[in-house]
Amino acid sequence: EPEVTQTPSHQVTQMGQEVILRCVPISNHLYFYWYRQILGQKVEFLVSFYNNEISEKSEIFDDQFSVERPDGSNFTLKIRSTKLEDSAMYFCASRMDSSGANVLTFGAGSRLTVL
Amino acid sequence: AQTVTQSQPEMSVQEAETVTLSCTYDTSESNYYLFWYKQPPSRQMILVIRQEAYKQQNATENRFSVNFQKAAKSFSLKISDSQLGDTAMYFCAFTGANSKLTFGKGITLSVRP
Asked: What is the pLDDT of residue A39?
């Protein structure tokens, strides 16, 4: 069964450092998402991406965050200068189209620890 | 804006018994979808079941079924014949026209041997 692949599975970084989280969505999917889950809390929407541009972003997704799909395969989330509160699990997800009937497929997540 | 509420933070059930997890939501949209996701200790998000709002029939997937009450905006998950592997966090989620998922806070389910 097709999977969404995320790397790294766990990254530890120092506060103020840049971090790039990578995702390879399912190949025929067109809509891509990043979600965040702080430990013990609910899963929060960060950003959605379609046709090489952001289609929606949440209040969490400030200027420190950016996304891109540089090569038509990878979908990356960059955090420019990490803060302690960025420590969380980051989930990438993709779907074929924007219809709610089309289920989001999640990756296994990337755990980010900021020290 | 849509909201999803899971008011029970945790529940416990004996193996082989039945448990029901509650979820309510609020939306002004008429066409939407509701989901239950399971998050085991590995923290991967696994789809358990999906309900389309325009369908009156409650969705069923093996031991998992939902009680969808559209007028009351309620969407509960029933797990029958609970198994140890059902121990996980369960999230109720909503998606409408804008296609993003809105999650509830989740409920921790423990299945006792």
From this structure: 86
